[in-house]
Each structure stands twice: as structure tokens, then as C-alpha cells.
Amino acid sequence: MTLARVWIPGLQPISWTLQRYIFREMAKTFVMTSVALTAVGSLGGGVLRMVQMGDVTTEQFFRLLWLVLPLSVVMTLPVAALFSAASTYGRLSADNEFVACRSSGINMHVLFLPTLVLSLFSAGVTFACINYVIPGMVRGLTEFIAADIPAYIQRRLSEPGGVGLGPGRRCYADRALIDPDNPDRVILEGVAFIEASETDWSRFGTAQTVVLQVDRSEEAPLVDGVMLNVTYYDRAKGQFADTKSQQFPRNRLGQLSIRQLKYLDLKDLFYYRSHLDEWHDVREAVDRLRMQVGARALFGDLYAQWQHNGHKLTLRDAQTTLVISAESAARFGDGSGLQLTGVHITERSSGRERTCRAARADIDIARAPKLADCGIRVDAYDAVIKAEGQVTERPREAFGPLALPKTTVDAVMAMPMAKLLQPDPSMSKSNPLERRRLKAAGERGLTLRKIDAIISQRFAYSVSAFVLVILAAALGIVFRGAHAIVAFGISFVPSLMVMITIIMGRQMTQNAGTYLAGLSVMWSGIALVAVMDVWMLTRVVRR
Predict the structure, then answer these.
(1) Hey, where are the domains in the chain?
(2) pLDDT at 272
(3) pLDDT tens across 51-60, in order?
(4) How many angstroms separate the CA atoms of 396 and 388, rounded?
(5) Which residues are 247's β-sheet partners?
(6) How far apart are CA 4 and CA 245, in angstroms?
(7) Which whole-number Å values give the CA distances from 268 to 125, 140, 262, 470, in the listed order?
(8) Relative to the CA of 342, which of 264, 294, 459, 490 has its CA 20 to 30 Å away?
């Protein structure tokens, strides 16, 4: 029989029949191992458990299974390639077939062509999956969950964590009803809620009803709404209060649909690396900083107005005008509010007027996710209100919120990032504004390091599949690993070393002090395996 042969400069002619034989043996082991490991990885990760619990229908199960397959492939394909290379070349070595090839004058190195093809295939599929397929899968899962947000809210109410309604706010309810006339509206009854600041609990109370409205107009579904007949305790002020309604700003619903860096495709990672301030974590940190800067500037102007206008100040927007006079005024400790005593307030709104005398009043910011959406709120305590000839006494009366002055908003929004993040030498690091500035700067730096770590990890993981398969084949020849246990051990040990260095390097890269060291550690395992490949092929296998 005549064998098809091809000539490569510097090497003996290659028998394609022999190459096809090796590749066929590797392919059989590779396919069977890949299918088995992928099936175990897909069904054993919780999808089957969801069906058993009745959380999804059979149709939803198969959709979920299709979505999680790429993740299983990424985890199992390199392992299957390592195992097939080690077992195939180990069996050929145990049967002395390489001795026969060498006796026939065949260069041992050309017999690694099937391994090279398999390693390139494994590395390429792994690279495509972790950079493009899996991010698309995550978007599919997000759309799968977000397709029925009201049902999601109902399920979360039965869990101990309740439903998150924006930063620092969680609520619990006796029951949830979906509005039959509007499927994107959920009505909660018998509600208890908790609000927290960055450092401590601030408010907790109850509401008779909460009406939630889901907005699907943006990529990440948002929820806003109103709480009706609210009774709460303000821990900072040490007072109980009642209000007929309380709005809460539009926010993402808990962790639903929040994009994470590790689930972005490669194109988006490079985009956000160049546009850090567009990433939601950085954007929110910077927005909160702008809010703090804007509040400090606003109340500085109001305090100066009170001093120079005969202890009187005026707040005005398109609908409402408040004229406030006070015997004394003092700024809050962080400069983001005013506390007045001996207060007289005149409110003019929609052609109506009412007056209020109060022992004390606080002027504060009605906060929202963005500075432009914030307002000015006035809370009067021990208030006597006169309106339309009637006099009413209340322990607390709220005025506003009024829109922030456009000049203040425009000035703060136009402030360049370098100036916004520049430390103020006159402030201590414990000042709330300085803490907010440090947090925003830290969030930008952390996001950049995370992106670099993820990109390096993905490239390192893909390249590792290439160098490890070649090493597994060489070790299979040396250790004559015909048995499955021997082949598994040969493929497992070096891959474990590489995975440890990649994971360790990623964690180190995310820390500012170990950024460069982390990148070095991440690639050190691959470099060591590459050196071992060269040594095994040029020294050990050749002998």
C-alpha cells in the first residue's frame, strides 16, 4: 500500500495515513470525554434542580439548558483535550509504536501535528466562548428572568432578603398583586421597609400599600413607585412621623439585570476601559460625588443669602416659591444642609398661599440617582400651619421638594473629572465630601484594574489550553500513560498549576499595590508550561 506523503523543509516526509490514525484516536477520546463532561456540567449546575422544584416549565428547562451549554463547554473542552492527548499518546507509547516510527526514520516531532491541531481548536473555541458566546448567554439569561419581573417580585417577597428598591432600601410585604390592567404594575400590601445610609440604619417603618411600576424602556429594567399611608421612625432625628405618600426614585430592582464586568464581551471590555465613567458603578459613584459637591455649593449659597438678606432666604422653581425667615441658621456638619430655628415659612404654589411657624426646620436634599433629579426639601417641626383661614398644628410638616437651581446643576455637571476628584487640602479625610471623593476615585481605579485583570485572564486561559495540550501529549509519551488514571493525572497536575496562577494573578491585579505583580503571576504558569513544552520536545521526547 502506498502512503500519501508530504514534505516539510527540514523534516522527513510525513505519512498522512499515520497522522490521520493518531488524529482519529484522539478525536474519539476527545468527543466522548467532551460530551460526558458537558452533560454533567450542564445538568449538575442547578438547571435540573430548578425543574425538579417546579420553578420552570419543561420548555423553559430546555431553553436554560441551551443557554448554559457554552459555560460547560469552556470548562470541559480544555480538560477533554488534555485527557485525549495524554491517553492517546500514552497508549501509542505503551504499544511501542513510536519506537517503530523512529526505526522507520520518522521525525518524532511531526507526530505532534494532530496535537497541534487539537490544541489550536481547543484554544480557539475557548477564546470565542469566554469572550463572546458566554456574554451573549448571560444576556439571554437576563432577558429570560426579566421577561416576567412582576412574578420575580412576588417570588422575592417570600425570601428573607425581601425586595431591594434602590440603594439602601428593602421592603417586605404580606402579599403582592399584579394589576390586571397593567402587567408591569405590582401592588404590595402590608409592607414593612428599611432604609440605610452608607454607614448605618436611617429609617424603618410600615406602609399600607406600595405601588411599583416597571420600566422596560432601557437595557436594564427599572422600577419606581410610591408608598401610601406611611409610618416610620427617623433614627437620625429620633422621631416618629406619618406621611400620606412617599415617592422613591427610579432604580434597578435589586441585583436584577445589573451588568457585571466579567460577563461583558471583549469589545465591550475594551470600550469601557477607554470610557470608564460610562460604567454604571463608576457613573453612580461620580453621580453621588457630584450630588455631594452640588449640595455643599447650594447650601453655601443659601447660608450666604440668609446672612446678607436680613436672615431671610428664598427658594423657587417653576411651580412653587418658599420664603423662609429664621432667627438663627447653621450648616450641617458635612455642609450639605441647613438647620434653622425660630422659623416662618410662606409657601406660594398654584395661586395658593399658606404660612407656617415652627420651632425648627431642616433644609436638606431630596436625593435621587442624578443631581439634576434631586430637589430641595424643607421639614418643619412643631409646626403651626395657616391655610385658607384654617390653623393646624402638626409635629412635622414637609415642603417641597423644589427643583435645584439650574445654575448650580449646570456648574457642577460641567466640572471636569480631574477637578472633581482633586482632593481639598482644607478638608480632613473624615469629611463626608472627601470620603465621597476618595470613594469615586477608588471606584474608577478599581474598575480599570478589574477590566485589565479580566482581559488578561481570558487571554491567559485560552493560551493555556494550547500549551497544556502539547505538554500532556509529551508527558503521555514519557510516562507511557495508557491507563485512564495515569492520563488523567498527567493532564490534571499541570493544568491545576496554571489555573492557580491565573486565579491568583487576577486577584492580585485587582489590587492597586500588586497590579503589575498580578499580571506577572497570571502569565508565569503559562510561561513555565511553555518552557516545559520546549524542553520535553527537544530533549526528553527526542531521546
Answers:
(1) 5-147+447-540, 280-422
(2) 94
(3) 444 445 566 5
(4) 19
(5) 226
(6) 85
(7) 19, 16, 11, 32
(8) 294
Specify the pLDDT at position 91. Answer: 82
CA 403/CA 366 separation, integer angstroms: 9
Task: Write out the three cell numbers for 523.
Answer: 502569565
Q: Which residues contact 418 (CB under 8 A, 6 or more apart)?
A: none
**What is the predicted pLDDT for the residue at 5?**
45
Q: How many residues does the chain have?
A: 543
**Residue 204 to residue 196: CA distance in whole angstroms:** 9
* Contact by Cβ (8 Å): 162, 253: no
> Which residue is listed with cell 452533560?
39
Q: In which residue ranges of the chain is pLDDT below 50?
A: 1-13, 46-55, 255-257
CA distance 309 to 330: 15
SS3 209: strand
**Alpha-helical regions (H) of 372-431:** 406-413, 417-421
d(CA 228, CA 243): 8
The closest alpha carbon to 384, from 369, 396, 368, belongs to 396
| pLDDT computed for residue 522 by the predictor | 92
The span from the CA of 155 to the CA of 163, in Å, is 9
**Residue 115 has what pLDDT?**
87
Q: How far apart are CA 71 and CA 46, in angstroms?
A: 13
- Residue 50's pLDDT is what? 47
Quick one: CA torsion of 437, 438, 441, 442, rounded to 10 degrees? -150
**Spatial contact of 249 and 368, defined as CB atoms under 8 Å apart:** yes
Name beta bridge partners: 361.
Answer: 340, 380
- With a CB cutoff of 8 Å and minimum separation 6, the contacts of 510 are 446, 449, 450, 453, 518
Please report which helix (H) or strand (E) contains residue 6, including its range.
strand 5-6
CB of 98 closer than 8 Å to CB of 92 = yes
263, amino acid identity: Y
- For cell 499595590, the residue is 513
Q: Residue 105 — left, alpha, or beta (φ > 0 → left; ψ -120 to 50 → alpha)?
A: left
* pLDDT tens profile 3-29: 344 444 444 445 677 788 888 888 888
Query: Are the beta carbons of 485 and 99 closer than 8 angstroms?
Result: no
Three-class SS state of 332: coil
pLDDT score recorded for residue 148: 61
Strand partners, 341: 328, 360
Other beta carbons within 10 Å of 97: 16
- ∠ CA 71-72-78, nearest 5°, is 105
d(CA 390, CA 111) in angstroms, rounded, equals 99
Residues facing 324 on adjacent strands: 313, 345
Closest CA to 199 of 423, 439, 511: 439
CA separation for the pair 25, 4 (Å, rounded): 19
**Where would I find the H helices in 309-355?**
none
The secondary element (H helix, E strand) that includes residue 484 is: helix 484-509
Give the pLDDT of residue 48: 47
